[in-house]
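Open question from group meeting: does this chain pack into something compact, or does most of it stay loose? Before anyone orders reagents, we agreed to write out a predicted structure and look at it together. Recording both the input and the output here so the notebook holds the full record.
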Amino acid sequence: MAPPVPLLAVRGSDGTSLLCGPPQCEQLSAFQRDARPGRCFIFTRDGTLFAWCNGHSVSVVKSVDSIVVSTFDLPKTALLEFSPLNNILVTWQPYTKTQDSPQGEANLQLWDLLSGRLIKALFQKKVDSWCPSWSEDEKICVRSVNNELHFYENNDFNSIANKLHVQKVSDFSLSPGGQPSKVAVYVPGSKGAPSFVRLYQYPVFGGPTAALANKSFFKADRVNMQWNQKASALLVTASTEVDKTGASYYGEQTLHYLSVSGETALVQLAKNGPIYDVAWSPSSTEFCVVYGFMPAKATVFNLKCDPVFDFGTGPRNAAYYSPQGHILVLAGFGNLRGQMEVWDVKKYKQVSKPEAPDATHFSWCPDGEHIVTATCSPRLRVSNGYKIWHYTGSVLHKADVVAGSELWEVRWQSFPNGSFPEGPVKYQAAPSNLGSTQAPPTQAYRPPALRHLPATPSSKLHEDEPPQDLRPGLLGEKSLSKSALKNQKKREAKKAARQEAKPEPSSEPVPIGSSQSEASSGDPEMDKKIKNLKKKLKAIEELKEQQESGKVLQKNQLEKIQKEEQLLKELQELQVGQ
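Structure tokens returned:
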């Protein structure tokens, strides 16, 4: 049976619509486009239901045939969410006070989806962490109330089953999956005391040994907490609003690792500067960090927080793993030009390098084959529209919003994990009538007055770093294989012997790279050829040393190494003829 075709929901000033994903990329005939401006929309986690608000009501329909499941008279709804098993619809509208209700009205509402009955109405003034968090089996639900966490069980919101109060909890994150559920809590520092994040397993909150792990740190005005899919580890990005050293406009960031088994660590990053993005691999065994002053570095780390692969430097500020985890996209959006690097994660080989200028949104299709990029308002109010791509760089569908209209949001239909199997990574661009947008090679700027002159080497503002495989056996003397280490020692011994011994004029040719004045043959043309050959051989020797140390060489550098025997033969013939 062929896997389903994911839908793409589109919301803007022209209304709300559903689009069939690739290869059709056409409007879903079963869904009647709602022409009224859409305020918000959401799919259930399994993708079977779709809900949206058009400023008059909230409607819930089946994704496959658009049959109406429920309708709610909630015109001011600004945010929507479903519980994991589709039992409850959560609606939120901005908190307001009126003369009739000076205390304000409950603006967070939980509805029974099938009956339409209101289960609970709650006050939620801030939009941050507005929605309660459920475990995947809906046995536990938690929300933050007045610096403490309230836990509910089995969707009974009339009684609080448990409370967690640790000083002043300002943020929390419930682990994905089912039981046993873990919760991470963040308490900001005060009066010289550090901030900290602690992990607990529900419902064990009391006692000095209740915490599964604890990590304290300074310099944190806010944190972003990310669980891996297996709920075995947590990454915490701690940020300050202002960098007191004045080095960064973005403030200061540090990245911390916590494991439910108790291990904690500060993730050591190889370049100073902001942390732009952190992304867990769906495998839960590694994560990617994009960091450092531009051009930014991107590095994959394992669960020991050791670097596994360094992608070098480039114009990037985001990382996106495919749902299957076999492909990683590094991208530069926002104030960057939209360049994307698509990598095969297993081989650490680049697949394509497309470009999506002015994109404000990127997301993977659940099939792991396609992506969508979009330019949305209010981030950018001009050139609104979206593109559906194949990861090899081909544009399969393009939709531009007509002048005077705005695109506000696009969202893929959700699917349960495992709905789409991992396919082999393709390097050949997928066929498309719209072609591809591979990024053109960049060249250094040259003033018009110098463009007619030959290019000369000059100092660079930034030194670009190439990718490096940092896995054991591929870098460093301790990690070199036995044969590579043996060859390296041989070369070092030869080099030392050449430096110590001065050859007789009639014996072997002068060592390559010798700083001594070289004997002249009396023929200036022949001397010039010999000098050039020695220069090329010296460069080849340096490339071979770099290759043995684990550096990934370019195609033209590998071709140079292959010419070594030919160059040695030419040099020997010239020296014999002297």
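Observations to bring back to the group:
The radius of gyration is 30 Å.
DSSP finds four helices and 36 strands in the chain.
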